[in-house]
Fold this sequence. Notes:
mainly alpha, 0% strand, globular
Amino acid sequence: MLESEIKKEIMKKFGRHEKDTGSPEVQIAILTKRIEALNEHFKKHKKDFNSRRGFLKLIGKRRKLLRYLQQIDPERYFKVINELNLRK
């Protein structure tokens, strides 16, 4: 799990206002940080297949949010993609 301080920094950077946790940009950024942390975990623990299932669910959820954001506002979508260094 991410520390609350890291989440607050993400909310400041990507949120529309101070306590914004529900916008797609914030959700995508938080999911990206969790995915990066799990990716490091899997480098050490290659046979942790139970955690890998949750990892794949996080990736799917992020993909759906990115698709949603791309449909509603392509400008915000490209901004998030560039700031998080995601491929698309």
